[in-house]
Amino acid sequence: MGTSTTPDGLVIVDKPSGLTSHDVVARMRRIARTRRVGHAGTLDPMATGVLVLGVEKATRLLGHLALTEKEYVATIRLGQTTVTDDAEGTLTASAGAFGVERAAVETGIAALSGDIMQVPSAVSAIKVDGKRAYKRVLDGEDVALAARPVTVSRFTLDALRPAVAEDGTQVLDLDVTVVCSSGTYIRALARDLGAGLGAGGHLTALRRTRVGPYGLDEARTLPELEERLEVLPIAQAATAAFPRWDVSAEDAERLSHGAQLAAPGLGAGAHAVFDPAGVFVALVEERDGRSRSLAVFAPG
Question: Where is the tRNA pseudouridylate synthase B C-terminal domain (predicted)?
Fold first, then answer.
């Protein structure tokens, strides 16, 4: 593709429905004219909203950005279940949601809030003995994934609307807002809420409104990015996502060569290190009172 003139940084995309996260990465490679593009946290093809891409050196930030909190608005349909726990899958049951009261829905939502153990959707990208779970399901296998701890810090019911499904089933459509840890499956929340209410449930719409500090106000559609590529410079991206640690020019030089610095009291998690000129030097974490480099960005 030739030499890229794209700056190191993040591109915040408002992903359209119907594209996989990999599709968006492929489009961005063409737009930015570089193969060094990656994404932080996938979105299902059905879903829309914030997808954080890294270009050039910023791809090395992505594994750490993926650990951040995420926010969604979604619609859950009570009264029907599907094989994929969302509207794209084959219908497996239509029990209906007749008689399900708002108070019961609120109680069910409360039970799925806070620190919970969640069984991911069987149709997920999680690997089981080296093979993606969704591929095993498509091959006709029964897949049972282990429950894992997730945090649902906010799960609110914004609206409740009686509806009639295409097959005539009386259902309830719930508009909800969810703030959760990375690794939480909103499809699984829909499934579990419906199961707890005895009606079944699946996801019919999903829009991610925030990933860590990056929200829809910063996101651009692919046509907008094709018209004008907007890249959040890597230093700004790091400042927004991580606690900042300013060091001397000498220490910055040492860090750029992989040296460890005394870092008592730096605190848990990744920290962005800057030199006196404001250059983003490295991403580090404290280990036994010393800094350990997670990724070095400034040339040594």
Answer: 187-228
Residue in 44, 192, 251, 275 annotated catalytic: 44
Give the count of domains, the chain: 3
Instruction: Give pLDDT tens digits along the chain (300 positions).
Output: 445 577 899 999 999 999 999 999 999 999 999 999 999 878 889 999 999 999 999 998 888 876 678 999 999 999 999 988 999 888 999 999 999 999 999 999 999 999 999 998 876 667 767 777 667 666 667 777 889 999 999 999 999 999 999 999 999 999 999 999 988 999 999 999 999 999 999 999 999 999 988 999 999 999 999 999 999 999 998 998 899 999 999 999 998 888 888 887 888 889 999 999 999 999 999 988 899 989 898 765
The DSSP line for the chain is -----PPSEEEEEEEPTT--HHHHHHHHHHHHT-S-EEEES---TT-EEEEEEEEGGGGGGHHHHTTS-EEEEEEEEET-EETTSBTTSPEEE----TT--HHHHHHHHHHTSEEEEEPPPSSSS-EETTEEHHHHHHTT----PPPEEEEEEEEEEEEEEEEE-TTS-EEEEEEEEEEE-TT--HHHHHHHHHHHTTS-EEEEEEEEEEETTEETTT-B-HHHHHHS---EEHHHHHHHHS-EEE--HHHHHHHHTT---B-TT--SS-EEEE-TT--EEEEEEEETTEEEEEEE-S--
Q: Is 44 a catalytic residue?
A: yes
CATH number of the domain that residue 281 is part of: 2.30.130.10
Are 63 and 74 contained in the same domain? no
What pTM value is reported for the model?
0.87
In a domain, 149, yes or no: yes
